[in-house]
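Section: Multi-chain targets

For targets with more than one molecule, the full set of components is provided together so that the structure can be written out for the assembly as a whole rather than chain by chain. Components appear in the order listed by the source. The example entry contains two components.
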Amino acid sequence: MATEHALTPSGYIEHHLSFNSLSIGNGSFWTINVDTLVMSVALGMIAMGLIWLVSRGATAGVPTKRQAFMELVFDFVDDQVKNIYHGNRHTFIAPAALTVFIWVFMMNAMDFLPIDIVAKYIVEPIGGEHTFWRSVPTSDINTTFALALTVWFLMIFFAIKSKGLGGWIHELFCSPFGTNPLIWPANFLFNLIEYVSKPLSHSLRLFGNMYAGEVIFLLLGLWAATGVTGTIAGAILGAGWSIFHILIVALQAFIFMMLTVVYLAMAQESH
Amino acid sequence: MDINFTLVAQAIAFFVLIVFTMKFVWPPLLNAIETRQKEIADGLAAGEKGRAELEQSSKRASEALTEAKVKASEILALAEKRATQIVEDAKGTAKAEGDRIITGARAEIEQEINRAKEGLRQQVSTLAIAGAEKILRKEIDAKAHAEILTAIAKEL
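Its structure, encoded as tokens over all components, is:
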């Protein structure tokens, strides 16, 4: 990595918004953002592994505090799904919603870590000084798009599964306006827009929120360069923003989960 | 900000996580919660049943109590009646006994009187004979005049 050591504000921000990318082929597509991937997979394994450990020893009798907490989360997700989806939710939609909620929440929560802490104390001892490392996977558009696209494919899969391929194609052309061949193009265009806008709004909402949050943390961190007053002001405002960010982190994870459930539920309903 | 292969890797990771949750995390938690819900519902139903049973048995107990009270008062009345009867009987017996004793005493008195009268009669007849002897200055044949003497004695 050719890092500029120019200590300008834009250089600082650019540095902290660069991914630790690894090229695995020719072209810009064949690169992997190692930081995003490592953080997200590690968080997913830790979070779901913890729940797995608890659920493996789950008893129907008096629950331990840990189990009670997990059941609280479980019930919260299950309640949301129950209100939206009226089929057998326990086979797929509810576990998927739980996964999305926990995982996205954990990834969002990485925003609370001080900007350089992972880079300085975990990555630098391994990879050397000034290694790029962004610790919030959801502020990488690849992550949010990956999630949204997976949901999108699942959506199409469930639509075809519940209506049949013919039924799905029929719906593409015949809803929402009617079955008259003259308005088939209008119906198709309408559905096309819907199918394109769903993953876009789904992924960009989360990405935008987390990216903006990160940029604000960076700007507040930048304040420290102006001296003691700036450092104190930056620290106070940073604490304030962190507290407010708790809401955003939880809310965005919740919204992402709800949209996932709504999209998957809508796919299985016939218009 | 570029879309790159990370997207594919993340999608795979996401899918694996979903499958993991679906297979290993969700079912045991669901099972535990649903079993507990059923147990609680059963417990509540059993409690309700116990309450109903308690109510019924307390009703039965109060019924039995009332019945016992009625029976007790019946027995008490009977006993009172019996006691009165016994007292009456005793009174009757005592009266009869008293009468009998009085009758016996009367008879004895009568006998005693008769005996005294007899004694007196004999003495009077003896006295009369002695008096007559003295009057007549001669001996009277007791045997010849016995008939008269007896008649006199009887008149006394």
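Chain A touches chain B through 49 residues (CB under 8 Å).
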